Amino acid sequence: MFTNIASDTDVKQPILNGLEKEVVYMSVHPNLPELAITCKSRDQRGGKIELWDYERCEIKKDKNFPHEASAIEYSPDGQHIVIAWEDGTLHSLPYNDDVLSKLDDGQRNVFEDKLIEHPRIRKIKFSPDNKFFAVCNNTSLCLFAMKDGS
User: Bigger pLDDT: 94 or 18?
Assistant: First the structure.
């Protein structure tokens, strides 16, 4: 769990410090006081995504999954979030407070067929205009358009 270790006026010191799980990847929302973290599950089988409110030092949402999320990234405008899984599956979702539940109900854009041969995405980066995002692992790079996933 994070603890508050600095005052609001002390910008040179960390605001939050600590976590009880092994962090795999993290991303800071561009407009909200939110940090998305992908973690290993406590039993090391599967993974967990946590959305932290760093002003309140608390978890807003969290969810366990049968697979580990290897990367997560907010779009520059904060309207989308892309999640990559250890098996190469990639999800792009419109961002809102209920984003983690959308991973179960089919309301997502899935790019499974395009990355199945390139498992374990290591990094996700958006273009500044939010129109494209790129993903890479140790040996390949793929670029996607946000409109249709091509």
Answer: 94
